[in-house]
Amino acid sequence: MDLTSYAELAVLLVNSDDTALDTLEGAARLLTEAGREEQAARLTRADLEVLRELRRELTAVFAAAARHDEDAAVDRLNALLVRHPVRPQISRHDGQRWHLHLTDAGRPSDEYAAGAVMGLTTLVTDLGVDRLGACGATPCRRVYLDTSSNRSRRYCSERCATRANVAAYRARRRHLSGHPA
């Protein structure tokens, strides 16, 4: 089982547009983007608030990790594990071998939450809290999972990395030329 793919559910939700969870259609698009078409088809209005609250809670986990406050990040993950228990099931589909799925029953929002929380928890326990990142490019607020071998990721995307590097280059040139911004 690739729990990084489950952890990506947390990243997708935290990085979702503020309006993505305003309507069932928006939430269904988000779940479909996450490869959760079956869950998207079963969404109800009750799921919207659960997903909104989950986004707030997961955002706080990433914020604690970005502040290098490991205890706060882990405390928040532990609280989420209690709130969103995992129901593992053995599954086989799409020509794959038997493997573990974290949940296949319950409300769509509960299934999404259990997968996202367990994925983040496994990533943190296997690789460390410092693998949860917040983009270093101003004013980006997106989060990411640092799965690099040397723990060097600082940006959510190549676009943000390029933008930050260009801004730093221009700032250095202004400084060297003696011209203030």
From TrEMBL:
Transmembrane segments: none annotated. It comes from the Bacteria. Gene3D superfamilies: Jann2411-like domain (1.10.3300.10). Residues 131-173 form the Zinc finger CGNR domain. Coiled coil: none annotated. It holds the Pfam family zf-CGNR. This is CGNR zinc finger domain-containing protein. It comes from Sphaerisporangium rhizosphaerae.
